Amino acid sequence: MVDQPFRSQWSFDVADYAAWRSQLEDVQTVLQQSAGFIDLQLLHSPDEADRYLVQSTWKDVGSYRRATSATAAKLIVWPFVANMLDLPSTFETLLEVTADTVVEYQSSVSES
Q1: What is the CATH number of domain 6-104?
Q2: CA within 20 to 30 Å of 87's CA: 14, 51, 78, 96, which one?
Q3: Is the pLDDT of residue 112 over 80?
Q4: What is the pTM of this model?
């Protein structure tokens, strides 16, 4: 069975980029050390100058939940995400398409 990747997307409107980026460095250090962490990307909106998106990819939803409930996350990550925009922030992967492959996953979310 192939693990279903899980993604977290945190959106921010950032007034002081240098201070915010410094906080993100601490967050990325905590997340990188977590089991199941795959990658983290910082994205910037070309349409809204102050809008940033931090996207992280995890082996599965359990890895994400364990990482963000750990003590280090409570001390470093949660104060950072407390300032994110009130938008949906976690997503399960249903389809991955590359130049060579297509992988489709079943939803792990119960509809009941």
Answers
A1: 3.30.70.100
A2: 96
A3: no
A4: 0.85
